[in-house]
Amino acid sequence: MALTDADVQKQIKHMMGFIEQEAKEKVEEIDAKAEEEFNIEKGRLVQTQRVKIMQYYEKKEKQIEQHKKIQMSNLLNQARLRVLKAREDMIMDLLNEARQKLTETVKDPVRYSALLEGLVLQGFYQLLEPKVTVRCRQQDVEMVQAAIDKNIPIYKDAVKSNIVVRIDPERFLSSEICGGVEVYNANGKIKVSNTLENRLELIAQQMMPEIRVNLFGANPNRRFMD
User: How far apart are CA 181 and CA 161, in angstroms?
Assistant: First the structure.
């Protein structure tokens, strides 16, 4: 039985409706898949950027913390240096005060003469030479000669050996020092420096640990005292 035009149109219309429905469903499927892929990609990108941002700020935080540590270390070092400088200044003031007291001692002829006698005799004992030369300040020549004359028999009796002593008549110690003597062997190559400044320096070096403890207290980080 042949189809009428109306039947053909109806069939065509039905087929077109079916095709349109399939196309619509396909579009919706594609849109849904695209939306899903978009959301997945968006989530991946967001997570990637979030990680990058977190890493960036974590790095910045570490840099700031490191910078703070460096600044704190610098401040501590500066404070430590200021403390050390203040301590050294205090020790220098103490030594200057000791030098001032030496100057006062030199002004007392009785005390200074006795001091010169000890310094001269010590120089003899340290050299143990048959001939020695003594240098002193020009204004001390008379006192030093008296000390030499007094100590020669003491030295001879102690070491059972003769000694010839002379004061250098040409080269005197600077008048700016507090006093004392320098004692040389015959050729001048060996010297015993017994100036008051030198003796003070030696004593200060020997007593420096004790001085520091008395002034600033014991150092808790110090394990050895010598």
Answer: 22
What residue segments make up the domains of the chain, in order of their start?
A: 101-209
Q: How many CA atoms lie within 13 A of 92 on its CB side?
A: 6
Query: Do 116 and 147 meet the contact criterion of CB atoms below 8 Å apart?
Result: yes
CA separation for the pair 226, 106 (Å, rounded): 33
Task: Please compute, for residue 113, the number of CA atoms within 13 A of its CA located in the half-sphere on the CB side.
Answer: 10
Residue 81 one-letter amino acid: L
The first and second tokens of residue 10, run together, are: 């109806």
Six token digits for residue 134: 């003594």
Measure the N-to-C terminal CA separation of the chain; round to a whole number of Å.
Answer: 129
Quickly name the fold that domain 101-209 has: hypothetical protein PF0899 fold (3.30.2320)
Q: Is the pTM of this model over 0.70?
A: no
- pLDDT tens for residues 78-112? 888 888 788 778 777 777 777 788 788 889 999 99
Residue 140 has which token pair? 């001390």
Among residues 145, 137, 159, which one has the least CA distance to residue 117? Answer: 145
Pairing of strands 131-136, 180-185: antiparallel
